[in-house]
Amino acid sequence: MSENLTPTQSAPVPAQAPARAEQPRRDRSEPMFPDGPVADPAGSHHERRIRSFQPRRSRVTPGQGEALRRLWPTWGLDIDGLSRLDLGELFGDPALPVVLEIGFGMGEATAQMAAADPGTGILACDVHTPGQGNLLNLAERGGLTNVRVANGDAIILLREMLAPDSLAGLRVYFPDPWPKKRHHKRRLIQPEFLTLAASRLAPGALLHCATDWEPYAEQMLEVLTAAPEFENTQADGGFAPRPEFRPLTRFEGQGLDKGHVVRDLLFRRKAS
Ligand SMILES: C[S@@+](CC[C@H](N)C(=O)[O-])C[C@H]1O[C@@H](n2cnc3c(N)ncnc32)[C@H](O)[C@@H]1O
Q1: For residue 257, how many other CB atoms are within 10 A of its CB?
Q2: Mind giving me the DSSP string for 135-146?
Q3: Does 103 contact ligand 1 (Cβ within 6 A)?
Q4: How far lies 198's CA from each of 20, 77, 146, 206, 207, in Å?
């Protein structure tokens, strides 16, 4: 370009970016939310294990951040894998049946279910920090005393922290579909997961899954049907009609917009 300029011409001077106000840099050794959720609380990235979630760095809005700082000490639980949970103590009511929801995302559906059924406690688990802040805000606004927000990998929660037969139900709505074949091993609903989940569910408790990814729906039906600890609530051995208590979730809405078919699976933990 410069070789085409005559000696009297000069190259255009790029417009200078306006000087930016100096932002104080965050000291990364300091936790972002001192009284809030801890990143990877169980230190489970040291464990050689396949993850069912995608590590994401999503921006936390000021409102979510404020909720994480203020409400976490009361409603939050870090999945550190170190202590056995007393669910009666956690919810302040030893008689309250508690269901675990794995992967609540932004938590809108969780808050709706908690509001609709105050007689059930929802232990809502996800690794997604903005969603944790969002659900805390929704719980506070709705006065939902029957929700607790757990931060970390649900596998550690089930394996290390929940007592056998302690759950009244398990909900897994629109788990990451991991569509590529080489990622199928990362799907949550697998035989080993079902063995672990069954051991923490009370006999008769429901395992409710939903997905809009047809191949995953087929896989779920196959592995659930083959799991000796579970029985299908549907006499025909197929998918279930969507139960009224499950609200439309955010991921479900996105799937429906793409024309996906949504499948619900309702299985019961057998008596023995
Ligand atoms: C596709 S999103 C669905 C969110 C929500 N259920 C919905 O339908 O809008 C799946 C969520 O599951 C979470 N997740 C996946 N595996 C998990 C695990 N092992 N423990 C905790 N959360 C997990 C992800 O972080 C993500 O937020």
Answers
A1: 8
A2: HHHHHHHHT-TT
A3: yes
A4: 56, 22, 23, 10, 9
Please list the residues that pair with 76 across neighbouring strands: 149
Catalytic residue among 93, 117, 165, 176: 176
Any alpha helices (H) in the chain, and if so which ranges? 62-75, 87-91, 108-116, 129-142, 154-156, 191-200, 214-226, 250-257
Instruction: Assess whether the C-beta atom of 112 lies below 6 angstroms from ligand 1.
Output: no
| pTM score over 0.85 | yes
Q: How far apart are CA 45 and CA 186, in angstroms?
A: 15
Domains and CATH numbers, the chain: 65-269 (3.40.50.150)
Coil/strand/helix, residue 182: helix
Residue in 93, 90, 95, 94 with CA at minimum distance from that of residue 123: 90
For 20, the token pair is 């930016």
- Give tens-digit pLDDT for 27-43: 666 667 778 898 888 87
* Phi then psi dihedrals of residue 106, to 5 deg: -90, -10
pLDDT value, residue 24: 59
- Starting from the edge strand earliest in sequence, which strands make up the sheet with 98-102, in order? 76-78, 147-151, 121-126, 98-102, 167-173, 201-211, 263-269, 230-232
How many angstroms separate the alpha carbon of residue 54 from the centre of ligand 1? 9
Interval between CA 18 and ligand 1 midpoint (Å): 41
111: nearest Cα among 127, 91, 97, 132: 132
Q: Are 216 and 263 within 8 A, CB to CB?
A: no
Residue 2 pLDDT grade (very low, low, confident, very high; cuts 50, 70, 90): very low
Residue 185 clears pLDDT 60, i.e. is over it: yes
